[in-house]
UniProtKB/TrEMBL annotation:
Organism: Eggerthella lenta
InterPro entries per UniProt: GATase_2_dom (IPR017932), Ntn_hydrolases_N (IPR029055), PRTase-like (IPR029057), PRTase_dom (IPR000836), PurF (IPR005854)
Domain Glutamine amidotransferase type-2: 1-221
Protein name: Amidophosphoribosyltransferase
Binding site for Mg(2+): S288, D351, D352
Listed SUPFAM superfamilies: N-terminal nucleophile aminohydrolases (Ntn hydrolases), PRTase-like
Similarity comment: In the C-terminal section; belongs to the purine/pyrimidine phosphoribosyltransferase family.
PROSITE patterns to which the protein is assigned, alphabetical: GATASE_TYPE_2
Reaction catalyzed: 5-phospho-beta-D-ribosylamine + L-glutamate + diphosphate = 5-phospho-alpha-D-ribose 1-diphosphate + L-glutamine + H2O
Protein EC: 2.4.2.14
Length: 475
């Protein structure tokens, strides 16, 4: 997905931005960058590096001595190299974006047809999506009109930061608010962040959370809304289920608290239908499945244990490296088991989600080889039926890469697409059939998914304000 951090203050903000961006490293593993505005020299300083095999902090430490400025922005990106420096009739500005553009090629061709001359092409031949966004912004006479034009033109989502040639920062939340943007305040400045904990550690306190589509101008003395928020919001549910760091808050709801509550609701609802098996331990798939499992174990009064421990000194990030074959091997290698908590034990594992099911077979086989008596699996969210088209979670070349959709296709072919809501409900005949079929293929003794209503209850905000597209296919 990606994340960003910016700051404008009456002191040098290089370290604030450096550590603020670093605290977003859990959101992406492809590339990162920072731009600072030097008011004395009237210029920008910028660096972009790949972080596919090196953490952000290590990759950028050597650049710190060359940076200085009282305003700056930086990003972690899972897409293209950024932030970019752009020169146009709006002046020279830096820009970083997070989101997804499904109609990028159409927008590129439209730009050519309207007189646009060229884009820098990457090795794949594709256009850097942040450069495309900048081109859309530059079609208008001011930043606010340009940002709104870009957001209206894009099929997908767009959240961004811009640093202007006078060192001010413009923050714009996606028009549907699919991602959060928060402002923190210190004694002599302001910051902009996805994750609230990032600025708490840097001496900033909570000040403001942008509404959907809201655009805000930030400088060392103030922040002010320059385009008001819209009425409709669809914030991504996966921020709480998976993406968000435990001590982050979105729309006033803490991530860790939601996950405890989510696991408890899942156990509560299973118990009401007699579905909780007899167990020795409940365990979480490290790391994001752990708090869901704690809630589940507490609710069903079963001991919580950690039969798997994630080895993080050398493999700290879930998505590293980029090569799929090597990534699968790393995912296997970094899960270190504890035989004493597996042998002759009845185990139930809770994971944040089951997307493709790539490692599930191997994990179950390994557990049985270690002497497990029973292995049960639970997903802290409903079956994923649609590839995300707004952010990068569950993004796939085809919906058939998704375990649940693949299983529906095997069971009923094209006809099954007409009954996805039934397959997603484990209480229906189709839902029971899908669960049984996955168990047979994967080797589970039982499988359960959190219901959509249960997950939304755990989040606790108005369900109409939460995006559930990847489960329902409804925008």
């Amino acid at each position: 997905m990606g994340g960003f951090f910016g700051a404008a203050a009456h002191h040098d903000v290089v370290l604030d931005v450096f550590f603020g961006v670093d605290y977003h490293s859990h959101l992406g593993t492809k590339c990162a960058g920072m731009i600072f505005h030097d008011a004395e020299e009237g210029c920008f300083q910028r660096e972009i590096h790949s972080i596919e095999n090196t953490p952000f902090r290590t990759r950028f430490e050597d650049d710190l001595q060359g940076f200085h400025g009282c305003s700056g922005i930086g990003c972690i990106s899972d897409t293209d190299p950024q932030p970019l420096l752009v020169r146009s009739h709006l002046g020279t500005f830096g820009i970083t974006t997070v989101g997804a553009i499904n109609n990028a090629e159409e927008l590129v061709e439209r730009n050519f047809a309207s007189g646009g001359r060229q884009f820098m092409a990457m090795s794949s031949g594709k256009v850097n999506t942040t450069e495309l966004v900048a081109a859309l912004i530059n079609q208008k006479d001011d930043f606010v009109s340009g940002i709104k034009h870009a957001q209206e033109s894009i099929d997908g989502s767009l959240t961004l930061l811009i640093i202007t040639q006078d060192g001010q920062i413009i923050a714009a939340r996606d028009k549907m608010g699919r991602l959060p943007v928060l402002i923190g305040k210190s004694d002599d400045g302001f910051c902009i962040s996805f994750e609230s904990f990032a600025y708490h550690k840097l001496g900033y306190r909570d000040e403001y959370e942008l509404g959907p589509g809201e655009i805000v101008l930030v400088n060392p003395d103030e922040y002010r809304t320059i385009s008001p928020a819209g009425d409709k919001m669809k914030i991504c549910a996966f921020l709480w289920v998976y993406y968000g760091y435990p001590n982050s808050n979105y729309e006033g709801v803490n991530v860790e608290v939601m996950r405890y509550r989510n696991g408890a609701i899942m156990a509560r609802d299973e118990a009401a239908t007699g579905g909780v098996p007899e167990l020795d331990y409940v365990a979480g798939v490290p790391d994001s499945g752990v708090p869901h499992a704690v809630g589940y174990a507490t609710e069903c009064k079963t001991p919580f244990a950690r039969p798997f421990i994630k080895y993080t000194p050398t493999w700290a990030r879930s998505f590293m490296p980029s090569n799929q074959e090597v990534r699968n091997r790393v995912a296997k290698m970094k899960q270190i088991h504890i035989p004493e908590l597996i042998n002759e034990k009845k185990l139930l594992f809770v994971d944040d989600s089951i997307v493709r099911g790539t490692q599930l077979n191997e994990t179950v086989d390994f557990l049985y080889k270690c002497g497990a008596e029973e292995v049960h699996m639970r997903s802290a969210c409903p079956p994923i039926m649609f590839s995300c088209k707004y952010l990068s979670f569950s993004s796939s070349r085809s919906d058939m890469e998704l375990l649940a959709r693949r299983m529906v296709d095997q069971l009923e072919g094209e006809e099954g697409v007409q009954h996805l809501d039934e397959y997603a409900d484990g209480s229906t005949e189709r839902g029971k059939c899908m669960l049984k079929s996955i168990c047979e293929q994967m080797g589970f003794d039982s499988l359960g998914y959190q219901s959509l209503d249960g997950m939304l209850e755990a989040i606790g905000i108005d369900p109409e304000k939460v995006c559930t597209y990847c489960w329902t296919g409804k925008e």
